[in-house]
Every structure is written in C-alpha cells, then in structure tokens.
C-alpha cells in the first residue's frame, strides 16, 4: 500500500526545503528559462540603445532596468516554484481577485500611452499592465474550478470557469486588447479540452469566437486596421511590419554582425514587440532557431512531465500555463514574420518590460511547481500495480 501511495519516488523525511526543491525541479526547463533571459539582456544591449538616445537617457538605461526587472522575475520564479500546488492555488485565488479588480478599474484610472488601447496604470515613475499578471492566476483558478467539477457531488466547475473566462475576455476586448483576450480564451480552451470537453461544445465555442471576431472587425477600428494590414498583399516598408520584414531578410543565416543592424533605429518597438527582428538582423537565423528551440523545450518538456501527474488540478493548471507560455512566444514571432496580425504581445523573458518579465517569472514559477516530482506518485504507478 505504501508503494502505491508514494510511487517510485519515496519521501525523504526531514529533508530541507532547498535540497528537496533542487532534487525535484525540472532543471532542463529552468536552464532554458535562464538562457532566454540572458538572450533578452544581450538583445537589449542592441535594441534599447537607440530608444534611450532619442529620450536623452543613458545609453544602457533600459538594459539596466531590464536587469532589475529580470532579477525580480527570477526571485518570483524561484519562490513560486518552491510552493506546493495547494499553496499556488491559494496565491492564485488572491492574485486573480486583485488583478481582476484592477482590470475593471482600467477604463476609469488607466492610460493608453498614446497607443490607442487603455492597458496600463501609470504612477509616474513606473507603470504596470494588470492583464499580464492576471493570465497565470486566471489559468490556475479555472483549473481548480474544472478539477473540482470532476469530483463526486462537486460544483458545476466547468460552467463557472466558462463564465469567468467570458467576463475576462470581454474586459480585455473593451481595452481593446484582442491579443490577450485570445490568449486567455486559448488557455481556458486547452484545459477544458484536456478535462474531456464534448466535441460539439468545442465546435460551438469555436463558432462563437469566429462570430465575435467578425463583430469586432465590423465595430472596432483598431481591430479592423490590424486585420486589413495583415491581409493586404503589399507591406508599407515604412511601417513596423515593413521594417521587421526587411530586417529579417537582411540578417540571413548568420546576421549582419553584432551592433551592425539598422532596424533598431527605425522601429519604435524594437526592444519590445519586435525584438526578434533585431535578433534576426544582427545574429541571423541561427539565434532565432535557438530561441525557438528554448521555448519549445520548456513547453514540450513541461507537457511531458505533466502526462505522468495523477492530480487533475496540477495536470490541468500546468497544461494551461505551458500552452499559454508557448503560444505567446509563437504569436510574437509569428507577427514579426507576418504569419499573424499585429497583436502588441511581448516575447516572454526576451522583450523589455517590467510587467511582462515579472509576470513571465510568476508563470514559469507556477509551471515548475506543478511539474516537480512529488512523493504522492504518478498515475503510471497505480496502473502498473493494478496490472500485476
């Protein structure tokens, strides 16, 4: 009976927290995260200097700030990854409540910084984007609701999670921030699918999303402008997409050389949304493939470890976080090469931004917590014992 409960990994009574954390953490994923952050600082040295020069600041002002934000993100990641799934759930309930209220207050107290979308709170010396922090907490809360709904005599968790998802998506669409809205809906949809959603229901939701997109295109100038820009066969070389496309072509396989790129002087968002264009121009396809491989390694490895997790809540929450993290990276890079419409979405750990990098640290910290090897064992242990 003891072997069935504890599986192939026996508990070590009295083991200190740090050694236990190091023994159970996914070291490959954590190494990949550290490498992405290091690449982000390297690219920041090139991409942010022109912006600092235009603003009359020290050339490495934004790099220094990114290093500070990154340090905070690493602390948040380490602290969160040491938590138990139950503690992550409690933290997420509190965090979701706080940032949901912040999201509701954005239309009244937020600012758009001249970008046409009210997404930030500005306090003069700093600003933050509540939707970035809301995403990981939302995923964990919805995973908890869906898992609770699978219990005997449990609450209608799937229905409640759907209502929560719709409310959050509507609030994001009102900013407007259709990219984050789509990402949140995708994260919920993945968990709902893994939990065993009927195919008819998934098809219905897909139809509703399509109808919502058509409605947004007809009623939102912001949304229509981005879709039209994506669908047009000709790209204006003076737009951000035009500059990015040209930079990627100029970079070739090995790049034009460190510091020799020109796109960073033309793109206003070279250090944030289009930083992959800077990487492609100066370091070439080689660095871009390394970045893609690192994101793929984190996502695929996390999903692989979660297949052996027997706790429904941990499995659902980890799956939602891993897929949302990987898809955000895919969307950012897809926009740069014009495979997707412009979304205004950062590249996790690589793009500049305090909210983005700290929220990414919390996200992967939760993911590392859910993918840790825990003494309660794996689903395969029980199946193996029953088959003997």
Number of helices: 16
The best one-word shape is globular
Largest sheet: 2 strands, antiparallel
Summed over residues and divided by their number, the pLDDT gives a mean of: 85
What is the strand content? under 5%
Would you tell me the structural class of the helices and strands?
mainly alpha
**Stretches with pLDDT under 50, minimum 5 residues:** 1-8, 377-388
Extended strand count: 2
Rounded to an integer in angstroms, the radius of gyration calculated over CA atoms is: 22 Å
The number of domains is 1
| Percent of residues in helices | 55-70%
Separation, N- and C-terminal Cα atoms:
14 Å
**How are strands sequenced across the largest beta sheet?**
1-2
Question: What pattern of helices and strands is seen along the backbone?
Answer: HHHHHHEEHHHHHHHHHH
Q: How are the elements arranged and paired?
A:
Layout: H1 2-6, H2 17-24, H3 27-47, H4 49-54, H5 61-81, H6 85-109, E1 121-122, E2 127-128, H7 130-149, H8 157-173, H9 178-194, H10 199-219, H11 221-231, H12 240-251, H13 275-306, H14 312-336, H15 354-370, H16 379-387
Antiparallel strand pairs: 1-2
């Amino acid at each position: 009976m003891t072997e069935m409960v504890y599986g192939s990994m026996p508990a070590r009574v009295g083991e200190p927290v740090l050694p236990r954390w190091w023994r159970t953490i996914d070291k490959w994923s954590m190494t990949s995260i550290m490498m992405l952050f290091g690449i982000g600082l390297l690219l920041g040295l090139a991409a942010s200097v022109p912006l600092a020069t235009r603003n009359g600041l020290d050339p490495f002002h934004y790099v220094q700030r990114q290093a500070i934000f990154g340090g905070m993100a690493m602390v948040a990641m380490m602290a969160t990854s040491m938590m138990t799934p139950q503690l992550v759930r409690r933290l997420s309930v509190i965090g979701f409540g706080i940032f949901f209220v912040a999201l509701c207050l954005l239309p009244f107290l937020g600012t758009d910084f001249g970008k046409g979308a009210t997404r930030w709170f500005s306090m003069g010396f700093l600003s933050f984007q509540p939707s970035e922090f809301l995403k990981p907490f939302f995923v964990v809360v919805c995973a908890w609701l869906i898992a609770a709904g699978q219990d005997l005599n449990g609450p209608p968790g799937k229905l409640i999670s759907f209502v929560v998802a719709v409310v959050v998506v509507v609030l994001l669409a009102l900013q407007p921030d259709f990219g984050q809205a789509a990402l949140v809906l995708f994260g919920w949809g993945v968990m709902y699918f893994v939990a065993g959603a009927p195919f008819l229901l998934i098809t219905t939701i897909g139809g509703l999303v399509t109808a919502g997109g058509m409605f947004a295109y007809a009623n939102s100038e912001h949304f229509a402008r981005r879709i039209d820009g994506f669908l047009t066969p000709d790209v204006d070389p003076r737009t951000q997409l035009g500059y990015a496309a040209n930079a990627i072509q100029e970079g070739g396989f090995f790049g034009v050389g460190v510091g020799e790129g020109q796109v960073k002087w033309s793109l206003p968002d070279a250090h944030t949304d289009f930083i992959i264009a800077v990487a492609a121009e100066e370091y070439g396809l080689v660095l871009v493939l390394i970045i893609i491989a690192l994101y793929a390694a984190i996502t695929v490895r996390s999903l692989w470890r979660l297949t052996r997790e027997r706790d429904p809540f941990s499995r659902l929450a980890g799956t939602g976080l891993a897929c949302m993290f990987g898809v955000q990276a895919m969307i950012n890079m897809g926009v740069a090469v014009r495979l997707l419409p412009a979304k205004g979405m950062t590249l996790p750990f690589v793009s500049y931004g305090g909210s983005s990098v700290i929220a990414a640290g919390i996200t992967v910290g939760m993911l590392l917590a859910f993918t840790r090897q825990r003494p309660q064992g794996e689903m395969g242990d029980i199946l193996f014992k029953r088959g003997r």
